[in-house]
Amino acid sequence: MVTPRDTPKKNAEHPQASVLHPVEWSDTELLKLCELRKTRRSGPGGQHRNKVETAIVLTYLPAQIRVEASERRSSGENQAVALKRMRLRLAVRLRTPIDPASPSSLWNSRCRDRKISVSPAHADFPRLLAEAFNHLAEADWNPTPAAERLNCSSSQLLKLIQQEPEAWSFLMEERRGRGLKDLKSS
Predict the structure, then answer these.
(1) CA 124, CA 138: separation in Å to the nearest integer?
(2) Which residues in the chain show pLDDT less than 50?
């Protein structure tokens, strides 16, 4: 399990959790702990793509987590895509301390009647995914107690995780590593 080493803020919402998860940082704060490299990539985009370095490779230095984006023709657009991918990867791979007694106000605002409402395209998705994974890790990767702490059903928690393929694969890896059986996908 990877944990953050350098964090720019304290978590005021959960005093027992002394740090914010990196997915909650601003783009500027996150980029301060990332190495950003521009490079060329092959593929669609015409001659323009072959002449300029528009691909972006981001590496979150404290944990050596790497993502890249090269499908757009502009480096600015690729940087935005890479930052979104970095937030998702950090949500899945990086754990931060939590207050196991209660979910965050963001979680509570997105979870009504034990159902989670968020699109994977929404900016809140990585934060919710990180919180779900922090609670899963705290519950030794068992969705039932994690869902109880998060005031949602186990099926809703698993449905949230299944929206991000890397998250689902990571959950199964963690469970297998502990001798637990795979969960069924819906």
Answers:
(1) 21
(2) 1, 5-8, 11-17, 49-50
Hey, what long-range contacts does 132-135 have (CB within 8 A, 24 or more apart)? Answer: 132/157, 132/160, 132/161, 133/91, 133/92, 133/95, 133/161, 133/167, 133/170, 133/171, 134/21, 134/95, 134/96, 134/97, 134/98, 135/98, 135/100, 135/103
The structure's pTM equals 0.85
Of 155, 154, 153, 150, whose CA–CA distance to 130 is shortest? 150
Alpha-carbon torsion, ordered 119, 105, 173, 70, to 10 deg: 50
Fold of 22-93: Double Stranded RNA Binding Domain (3.30.160)
C-alpha 122/C-alpha 48 separation (Å) is 31
Q: Looking at the chain, which residues constitute the CATH 3.30.160.20 domain(s)? A: 22-93
Nearest CA among 34, 36, 26, 46 for reference residue 6:
34
